[in-house]
Structures are given as structure tokens and as C-alpha cells.
Queue: 2 jobs
Job 1
Amino acid sequence: MKEKVTKILKEYSQEHLLDYMKCLNKEEQEKLEKQILNIDFKQLKELYERIKQNQDLESKIIEHIKYTDKEKLSEKRKEELEKIGSKIITSEKYAVVTMAGGQGTRLGHTGPKGTYILNTINGPKYIFEIIIDTLKRAQKEYGVTIPWYIMTSRENNDETIAFFEEKNYFSYDKSKVKFFKQGELPLLDISGKVILDKDKKIKEAADGNGGIYEAIAKNGVLDDFKNRKIEWIFVSGIDNILSNFVDPILIGLTIEEKQKIASKSVAKTNPKEKVGVFCKMNGKPKVIEYIELPEEMAEERDENGELVYGEVNIGTYLYNISVFENLADIKLPYHVAFKKSGYLNEKGEFIEPEEPNVYKFEAFIFDAFSRYDNMTILRVKREDEFAPVKNRTGNDSPETAVKLYNEKFNK
Ligand code: UTP
């Protein structure tokens, strides 16, 4: 094993680990060696080399994507769609997935983001509890207990499960709640070297919410969907506390439009808002980030004065199960973020940097949409369905999210 490890480290310029290994005891060395053999250093090298290359959007054709505005549907139309969607829910063909594998560094809470407490008009509530409240409301309305799957990561999985055990699953049927772990990738410092963590192993972090496709296929979740005869799966993040994830109109519309993937959107408030919006790129559905959208396109309006690229991605998606079957082996592109991360220095001291010091590679869930020719987009009211908890203070913080929550539940 040792020779193989040495060869890999030399080949990929990670020899600093060899020096480091000399200071480890036998057991620690073996653990690290085992981890090294499990890491794809070739892929890491390619990711690092790609950091410096700019993505060229010039050759890409960007077009508007069609959407339906929920507010503009007639009562009759809403009833029709609701009927189709409700049938899926009441016949137990519906499941919900919450992506909770992120690190939540911007919020800075120690522990999984779902264990953060918000002081709402309904009392102090953990974010996970707010999601369960939504599931319980659906339980009352449709008379079924919707299966709930929570995607975690190595870093927060045990803590997340322990939290639910301690809180007795907030009295939701425990047999309907399942946890599954997503994959991870090593972090790289600015010279492309892997770093070490407190546990004397290479520091790895969740590989972005795009890891969901592989995680669902690999961890028996897809089989579980099939065993339960689930057909439609709603996926959203842990951080939108108003996510309305049991929405028969969305299900009905997607089925009627004969699509396999759908997403909700909210209207962009102004051309400069820093959000990703839906569009079609080279004929396929795509979320384009604000930095990628040319200014004149961001400003473009249609004959009704609406922004042509104005459907904001709020991270709330609906999938037909066939998508998870088809995309089980999908290889999504990785996006790079420069982040702060503690590491062991060569003297074995743990350093907490003041400034970002590592590259983190993340795949995005929505990059898979371009594998399909089209998707359903349902525009909903921002104040009804979008209250993100991202930052510690300011925009999209616990304060702004609680305000929106209180306004909604005070009605
Ligand atoms: P964010 O992009 O907000 O990332 O994730 P984050 O890691 O939670 O937070 P920061 O950037 O460090 O502050 C959007 C959603 O995707 C999930 C998050 O848990 C959140 O629900 N996510 C993100 C994962 O499940 N896995 C990941 O690897 C990344």
C-alpha cells in the first residue's frame, strides 16, 4: 500500500503528505493511506487546472424560457391542476427531499443548518421543525404521511440524526424519515495541494448539491422510492423556510405539460438583483448566474414590461422518478469557490485562517436540467414561498426570513 501511495503523491505533486506522514503513528498513517487511495487525484488536478480558465459564454445562445404565473391562473384552471396533483399526493406517489449537506459557512452556526433556532411568532423553532410543520399540514390536508428524505454530508450526518432522535422526530412518523449522505471532494490550497484536518486526514467537503443524483442512486434511496411506488419527488434546500413543497398545482402543471422536471420561480425584482435566473441555453433549460448574464439581456423587457430573464431560481424542484434513474451516473461540471478553512500546518498546529485560503469544488443540482429539452416553470409569489436563511446578518438572514415567516403566518 505504501509504495502505491508514494507513487500517487509524487505523480500528483502532493509529496508534502509524505513528510507529514512521518509524524503520524501507524494507525493514523494507515487511515490516511486508505483515504489517499480513495481519492481521484487525476480529477482533482484537472479541477485545479481549470480554475484559471474562463468559461466562454459567447458561443452560447441564450433565450427566454416559458413559464406559468400561478397568480394569473383562473380559479377553474387551478382546480383542474389541483385535482391532478392531489391525486398523486393522496395515492402516496409523492416524496420530499431536503438538501441539508451544505456547510452553511455564511450563517456561521455550529452544527447542521437545520438545527438553527428561529424566533417566530409561533415560538422558537428549529429550521428542521419548520419543514416538519409543513409536512404535518400536508398530512392533515391529504390524510397521508409524506416520506421525507434528508440529504446530509459526512460532516453533519451523525449530528443531524442525533438531533432528530433527541427531538423524537418532532412527532413525525420516524419510519417515513430517511437520511442519506452525499459525496465529497478534497479542498485544495492556492497552490493545488490538499490540506489536512484536525483528525490528521485529508480535509474533504461536500461536493455541492449536484451530488444529489449520485447520492440518491448509490445509497438505496432510488430503490426506496421504487419500493414505495413513488412517482414524483420534490427537492429543496434546508435554507428556504417558506418552501411550499406540497403543491398540487405544480405537480398537475408538470404532468399536463408532459415534463419530467419542474421548478418554481419568483419574479426578479430589478435587472441588477444578484440571483440566478432560468433561461434556455443552446435550446436546453439552464440557470444562468447574474455574473454570466450580459447586461443588455438582464435589462431586456417583454411587451408587458416584464424582464425577459426574470424567473429567479429559488432552489425548489420537482422531479419525476425517471430523472433519478436516468441521471444516476451523471457527471456534472464543478464550480469553484474560494473559501475559508482551518488546516493543520507542518508543525501539526491547527490554523484558523482570517481570509479565504482554499478552493472548494461544487456541482450544482440545476446543471442537470440541460440533459432535458424542456421543463415546467411555475412562478409563485415571493412573499409566499421564499424566505432564505443564508447570511448571519443583513440580506437573507434569520432576521429577514423570520419577518417573512411571521407575515405569512400572521394572515
Ligand atoms: P448553499 O449554496 O447555500 O451552500 O446551499 P451552503 O454550503 O449551505 O452554505 P454556505 O455557502 O457555506 O454559506 C444551498 C442548498 O444546498 C444544500 C445546502 O444545504 C442548502 O440547502 N447543499 C449545498 C447540499 O446539500 N450539499 C452541498 O454540498 C452544498
Job 2
Amino acid sequence: MNINFAINQGSKILKNKLIPNSQLDSEILMAKTINKDRNYILLNSDYYLTKNDLINFYRLIEQRSLGKPVAYLVKKKFFWNSEFFVTNSTLIPRPETELIVENVLQVTKSSNKINILDVGIGSGCILLSILKERENFYGTGIDVSKKCLNISKINAVNLDVTSRLKLYKSNVDKFNLGKYDLIVSNPPYIKKSDIKYLEKDVAKFEPRLALDGGLDGLSEIRKVIKKAPKLIKKKGKFILEIGFDQKNKVVNLLKKEGFYINSTHKDLANNDRCIVCTKI
Ligand code: GLN
């Protein structure tokens, strides 16, 4: 069977299972199967597949048909300017989280040698993208998940920023190491009772630990905001991702802890997603 035929078969299987973007997913999974990029498979569509290739391809198609996200099947996701290694222990980097990176670069335009703390580093996509952009910035990442720290480490090696990165397994309430010029965080902020309404791919396959924000969705955000003043230098910035309906509540929590709100930012779906504030 040639590449083109197999891709069309794969796409049909996915379409029957109501997977959106079935053709694209089938192409990406074929590229993964034969370890080439998408251009190669489109340019060599009459190339004949081995029996083993076919078995591997249909195995990936089957997993995708059950809802497993493509990023977990190909074990990578592009974010900002780099490709990140991901497994099902980390949240898949999302385009809206690039708002944090964008705002960090904006507020640190004339900064040098600053120390940044990422609370809940996950795959490392936020902090490592920043370190890659700014060659004299230093980063510290904490996470409660050892697996996430291992993945962040792999990504730091891939992006060649390990010499400027420290990683610690810690909960934010228990973390007392250092004072930072800037804190970033994309904590879990989905209401526990809303997790079941997320897209099936998310709810069934992404880590609860990275999504579950407790009864009102704010329990982890509250923890980070309570601790941030102790970890951040005076006039330091705090840039954080929030749920679409959390802006007012989070702004109030931040003000109560002594932060001045600089700006809030909407994502491409026009939802409030990112808050930039300063410790006064
Ligand atoms: N934005 C993610 C989602 O809606 C949630 C990420 C988070 O809780 N930090 O799936």
C-alpha cells in the first residue's frame, strides 16, 4: 500500500469517529510512522510502505480515533519558537499561553540578568521559551510532578538553556528559595465540576493535576497569589494565565496581596486570559 492510500484510509477511519481535522491528523501520524516530516510524505505519496509501517500507522490511527491528542502520539508540540517534547504527564502547550511569553518579553525589553520563577513549569514551554529568547536571563522552575520536571529538563537540553535553569520539586506554599524579578504561572484553573465538559481529548487524556483548580477553579491560583509577594522583589512583575471568567475575582485577589494591575489580555477567542501586575 502506498502512503497516499494509507493516509486516505486513516483519514476515513478518523472521520467516522468524528475526529475533526481527520486528513491533517492522518498525515501527521503517517509522518511520525515513517519518521519524516509532512512535506516528505506529501511529496512522496506513492512511496510503498512496509508491513511494519502499516501496522504502526494503524495503531496510531486507532489511538487517535479513541481521542488521544496528536501531540501525545507524536510526543511533541510546537510552542512560541521551539518544539517541545511532551508526554501525557504534562499539559499540551496551548497557543493562548504564548500570551505570557509575549508579555514577559514586552515588560523585560530593557532588563538584564533577571531571575524568573515559573510556578508549575509543566513541559517548560513558558520559561524555556523566555530563556531561549533572552540569553542573559536565569530561570527557576517548580512543579509538584517529578515527571514534569524530567520533561522540562529534556526540553531545556534540547533548547540548550540548562546552564541558566534550576528545577525543584515543590508545592508553591512550601517553596521559599530566593527572590525573583518576575514570576510566571499557568496554574490549573478549571472548576472540578467543569472538567467533564471540556473537550473529550482534554478531559480524558490530559493530566488532572494540570487542569483541576478545585471547587471554584481558583484554589491553585489563590495559592500562587498568596505566596507570590514573598517570592518576588519589590517592583517585580507577576504574569499569570487565568480561566475565561476569572478576571474580576483574580484582579481582586491580586490587589489584596499588594499588586498593581498593569494590564489584562484576551486570547484569540476573545476570552480574558492573561494578567500582568507589579508588586508595589
Ligand atoms: N487552557 C486549558 C484548557 O482549557 C487549561 C489550562 C489550565 O488549567 N491551566 O484546557
